[in-house]
UniProtKB/TrEMBL annotation:
Highest taxon of source: Bacteria
Organismal lineage: Bacteria, Pseudomonadati, Pseudomonadota, Gammaproteobacteria, Pasteurellales
MF annotations from Gene Ontology: peptide transmembrane transporter activity
Signal peptide positions (record): 1-30
UniProt xrefs under Gene3D superfamilies: Dipeptide-binding Protein, Domain 1, Dipeptide-binding Protein, Domain 3, Periplasmic binding protein-like II
Protein name: ABC transporter substrate-binding protein
Amino acid sequence: MCLYKKVRFCFFSLFLNLAAFSLLSHSVSAAPRIPDELLNNGLIYCTHSTGFSFNPQTVDVGTSMNVVTEQIYNKLFDIKNDKSKKIIPALATGYRFSDNQKTLLINLRKGVKFHQTIWFTPSRDLNADDVVFSLNRVLGRLYSYPTPEQEQSRQQNNPQYQIYYDLARQNRYPYFDSIDFNGKIASVSAVSPYQVKIELNAPDSSILDHLASQYAVILSQEYALQLSADDNIAQLDTLPVGTGAYQVSDYFRNQYVRLQRNDNYWGKKSGIKTVVVDLSSSRSGRLEKMLNQECDIMAFPEASQVENLLSDKQRFSSISVDGMNLAFLAFNMNQPLTQNTTLRIALAQAINRERLVKQIYFDTAEVANTIIPKSSWASQFNMRAFAYDYQPEIAKQFLQDKKLTLNFWVLTDNQVYNPNPVKMAEMIRFDLAQAGVQVKMKYLQRNELEHLLLSGQDDYHIILGGWLAGSLDPDGFLRPILSCHTNNAHTNIANWCSQAFDQVLDRALKTPMQISRALDYDIAQQYALNQVPLLPIANVKRLMIYHNRVQNMNMSPLGTLRFAELELRQER
């Protein structure tokens, strides 16, 4: 049996030395084929490794949601997978707000077991301590960890302990930071072993949506305490322990994850014993594997590949939902030149968004004429108030004599909302040149952008970006990209701040009536559209291609699958 303090060594050795092989064999240039023995009674899900993490709390967007959130972990609440898109209990069994709407009591499901793995054996079922720990962790309130002050002897024996302690706890929680989760919640506490109390600083009707978001997974406090005692809290995010229908069996970094059915799962047991998540291939590689029957489900297909694949109806089918996302061009409100509203409208009128969507997305996206996507429940009141449809002659008349030169920054990371940002940027530059505007391009990745933002070197006038929400609540869409709270942050790349806009968002949170909230969000949206801090470009459909042997395909409103709901015909 492995000693606990040697768990990392045991993990790699017991996983057939796969991770060690990936670290030592730098000369290997091709991804290994998934071993045949892993495919018995199994599903192969092909995706990419971008943004992959075994703790979705710590990432912006990426593979983690489908591979981790919906399979390894559970949340307190889920979103009903129908037109109602209602919040339904998951690990919770029910909830109740106080009369003043500032206290939320959540009752928890009993008999929920954590995964038993080679690196952790739970001694108890899930209870309120796990929920309190998980929420306090993303709030930065680490009451459950031993503090350095309580461990003077340990620090004396190991002078590096204080450094390690600080570094291991410097996780970022991008989603929760973007919605000011810390500002919403005054405290989280356990009332009893199966009841949690959340005290809010003010009434907030979005709180259940955020607890149902793809990032709000529940971790094991017992596992975290053991890791903390072993000076290894960072392992909480690399060797996962959850309560979901699947648990990790093998992991080959940036190559594949093997998920094994959790036979102690509290919900309906999966009929599929093994799921292999192939992380190794590019879009063209995934296409080749799909055609060679090495993939059962293909995520993030190239838009141009979809029509060819679906022409073979005997083998392949597709499923799609309207995505809670937006690709946009943002105007930097910190630059004097782009503070001119009339100029921003003219620049917007010079850009042919219909052409962008046709050439970049083919039939997998729609031109966005609003900020709130139609997949949100608030879109029922989306009222188009556009002053900047494509009008090249009007734009040219205003712009051509001004001899403008704009710094145009482009985030090159391919995202759900923009599969080819470089091509889109070049097309926008062409449109602006036709109107007499010179453009200087700068291509960069998100981590470089964050560095330049922090150092005050963000001298762009326009920047190509987007947003992918983790819930269907419009507050979690509008606030991160346009509120004063996120001004000068990496989500609000327009650096736009309007007290009037924020006041409407805040007012919308104070009523539990969804229709009133939807009206307020539309008022806020129309205000932003008229001020043009950003130009909406596209809403992308969440799309997957699958082999017809896969049955019961049902995608959530956020574009995710639950592997436990799928069934397989045996022939491959």
